[in-house]
Amino acid sequence: MKLLEVRGLEKSFTDRKRVFRAVKGIDLTLSEGECLGIAGESGCGKSTIANMVARLLKEDKGEIFFEGRKINEGKKLTCVGRRLQMVFQSPKDSFDPRYSVLRSVMMGADSYHIYAKEDLEKRAREMIEYVGLKASYADKPVGRLSGGECQRAAIARALLCEPKMIIFDEATSALDVSIQAQILQLMKRLKEERGVAFLFITHDLAAASSICDRLAVMYAGRIVETGRTKEILKKPAHPYTRQLLSAVLPLKTDGSYELLLVQKYREPCEAGCDYYASCPKAEDACRENVLEYETCGQRQVLCRRGI
């Protein structure tokens, strides 16, 4: 069953009369209990999508449906509710450092009046331990936690609201590698035991490969390739996906991702493929018009060369 559906999402920003198109007509779906990764380099628009879905940012155009209900009607931003939560890249910025972990974890659920007062603290303490923090941490000020500990507290706060979906916006990128692995392991546990769906925003393809069922690769505001994560990593179809993989998974011989270099400089094109100027396999026809998705099973690629 579809939990989230996004249709034709667009967003532009204006700086000194210059218009920058951050998101250019995005379509995506997320099913219950599924993890969808949105991967790409900095500035490709992935966090902008996350903020629009979480209703922290107003879109210019498009529709967003959550649990079958359109959540972006009207001119003002409105809260989706406790069923959709978000965990940020820097969790300390979303906590008051003076508050205890217990008080911080309880605040979200308390605002939704989910539990009776006598049950709220008990459930919050249970959730603190569930995410891997010691019971004694409940009385610690948030400002004294490490980055990984604070991220666990942020996950506990989100889980206490009993969400159907959690958006992780680069939630592991600021952590040490060993701590990243622990957080990813916790996410797998949540997925298996609680059936929580994740929208996982990342530039780390290694992290995406370990947690995501499906992967959407973004470039310059568009999704250029989407499909099952294992299929994309095994045989990337879009030239940009291959470049991205070659940068982080430099294997060689059979099935490897050789680094593809542009042989000559090209002027960027306004009407055609966004990746034209950097693509090592671009043709003159790639300049002419915005491309349509080529579909093969559950795989979609925004490239005229097909799958």
Overview of this protein structure:
The chain has helices spanning 46-53, 101-112, 117-130, 147-160, 177-194, 205-211, 229-234, 239-248; strands spanning 2-15, 18-31, 35-39, 61-66, 69-70, 84-87, 165-169, 197-202, 214-219, 222-228, 294-296, 299-301. By secondary structure, it is of the alpha/beta class. It has a domain at 2-83 and 163-235: P-loop containing nucleotide triphosphate hydrolases (Rossmann fold). α2 packs across α3 and α3 crosses α4. The longest helix has 18 residues, at 177-194. The two termini are 27 Å apart.
CATH class wording of the domain at 2-83 and 163-235: Alpha Beta
- Per the CATH scheme, the topology name of the domain at 2-83 and 163-235 is Rossmann fold
Number of helices: 8
DSSP strand count: 12
What are the secondary-structure elements, in order, as H or E?
Answer: EEEHEEEHHHEHEHEEHHEE
CATH superfamily of the domain at 2-83 and 163-235: P-loop containing nucleotide triphosphate hydrolases
Give the name of the CATH architecture of the domain at 2-83 and 163-235: 3-Layer(aba) Sandwich
Structural class call reads: alpha/beta
Beta-strand content bin? 15-25%
Keywords, separated by commas or semicolons:
single chain, 307 residues, alpha/beta, Rossmann fold, eight-stranded mixed sheet, four-stranded antiparallel sheet, elongated
Fold blueprint:
Elements: E1 2-15, E2 18-31, E3 35-39, H1 46-53, E4 61-66, E5 69-70, E6 84-87, H2 101-112, H3 117-130, H4 147-160, E7 165-169, H5 177-194, E8 197-202, H6 205-211, E9 214-219, E10 222-228, H7 229-234, H8 239-248, E11 294-296, E12 299-301
Helix pairs in contact: 2-3, 2-4, 3-4
